[in-house]
Amino acid sequence: MPGHLDAEIRQAIEPVLAGMGFSLVELSIGRLKGTTRVCVVLYKARGVGIDECAEVSRLLFPRLETLEDLADISLEVSSPGIERQIRSPAEYGVFQGRGVRVLVGDATEWTGGIIDAVEGDTLWLRRGRERKGLAISGIRKARLDYSVEIEEAENAV
User: Fold this and answer.
1) What's this model's pTM, rounded to 2 decimal places?
2) I need a surface site. Which of 78, 133, 144, 156 has the fewest CB within 10 A?
3) What's the CATH number for 3-78?
4) CB under 8 Å, gap of 24 or more: what pairs does 143-146 form?
5) What is the pLDDT of residues 80-93, one digit of tens each?
6) CATH code reported for the domain at 90-156
């Protein structure tokens, strides 16, 4: 898929999403049998339900129809899910405050914590009062993990 189409779609939808309080986590575009399939994954700190996905879809679809390079459009809007695999370094900033588990370097054990901050190439995880910095470039795998958030909440009580 040409990069200009990705940029054009982002430019058309990101202001709408931001105005609604959502962050764009992922945008994928593909063509199948003459149809352009646009998949949008969005996030909001208090959660994204089916009603929000439907509302976003109703607002985005007419915008996408005005783009010249899109003929027959199929739009899918979804949330990242509670155990989403982190696919890009930018997602750490989007999911700040959420629980995550990461595999770093050649480690065989997952490291978990709450995403406290992202500073340059460093991901800061918080576990209780402990704070640990990890080089993002050294992270092999990462995924959101709601159980980390539950553990933190239980330990805070």
Assistant:
1) 0.80
2) 156
3) 3.30.300.70
4) 143/83, 143/84, 143/85, 143/86, 143/100, 143/101, 144/80, 144/81, 144/82, 144/83, 144/84, 144/86, 144/95, 144/98, 144/99, 144/100, 145/83, 145/99, 145/100, 145/101, 145/112, 146/82, 146/83, 146/99
5) 988 899 999 999 99
6) 2.30.30
